[in-house]
Design brief:
This protein is α/β, with parallel strands linked by helices and 232 residues long. The chain is built from 10 helices and 4 strands. The longest helix has 16 residues.
């Protein structure tokens, strides 16, 4: 009889691996085995992807708000405009990744038109300039519903738009990437580029929020109290 106490077996520290993670591991190991890239190159790319964020995109929009000529460039040649604010689409390997070789377009909001982006197929996203996509952007819940009921979904994000504003949903895919250029909010007259950059959050650049003078990228979101708080 075994003296192993099954009731005292320690549970694993991580949840069970998902099917997608199994596929990623299998594909990565096969690519390394076939010589498409090395394990070192994969590590460099992974570390780079984890540290980039939406600040370059926010900087681009802030600069466009202040410089009409740059705004014209951003709306006609977004890749060139993004390079002017320091985004190198070939980083960090020198040849980029296949998903980053695409047509990139910046969508300008107007008083009559509001844009929001989605990827109905999976989670296509302009990572070199916006960083990694948020978890909710990749969920079937968002992808399926935003194209059918954009206003109710935006309302769930706290964005209530006037009925006379058209909501246009742009669908990213393997060949096209988008980001939104929101309108400059009132109350920011005389602000510097750095000040404007701070209020242009990731959600504004996706189109599920609007920039506001009192809301910055460093805002601390209020949390709800626990329903059953622990009483010490």
């Amino acid at each position: 009889m075994s003296d192993h106490d099954h009731a005292r077996t320690v549970k694993p520290m991580v949840d069970e691996i998902t099917d997608f993670e199994v596929l990623e591991i299998a594909l990565r190991e096969l690519c390394i085995e076939k010589g498409l890239f090395t394990a070192e190159q994969h590590r460099i790319m992974t570390e780079y992807a984890e540290q980039i964020g939406p600040t370059p995109a926010a900087r681009l929009v802030a600069k466009a708000w202040l410089d009409p000529e740059f705004k014209k460039l951003a709306l006609t040649d977004a890749i060139t405009a993004s390079k002017e604010i320091g985004v190198d689409w070939l980083e960090p390997t020198g040849f980029g990744t296949p998903s980053d070789f695409c047509a990139f377009k910046i969508l300008e909001d107007t008083p009559q038109l509001h844009h929001v982006i989605v990827c109905c197929l999976c989670s296509c996203y302009p990572r070199p300039i916006l960083g990694n996509s948020p978890e909710w952007y990749r969920t079937p819940n968002y992808r399926r519903r935003i194209v059918r009921w954009p206003r109710p979904v935006l309302a769930e994000f706290g964005l209530e738009l006037p009925v006379d504003v058209e909501v246009r949903v742009e669908d990213s895919n393997q060949k096209h990437r988008f980001m939104v250029m929101p309108m400059r909010p009132k109350g920011t007259e005389g602000w510097t580029e750095d000040q404007l950059t701070e209020i242009i959050t990731r959600d504004c650049l996706i189109g599920v929020a609007l920039p506001k003078p009192a809301v910055t990228t460093n805002v601390i979101t209020a949390t709800r109290p626990a329903i059953r708080p622990v009483v010490e």
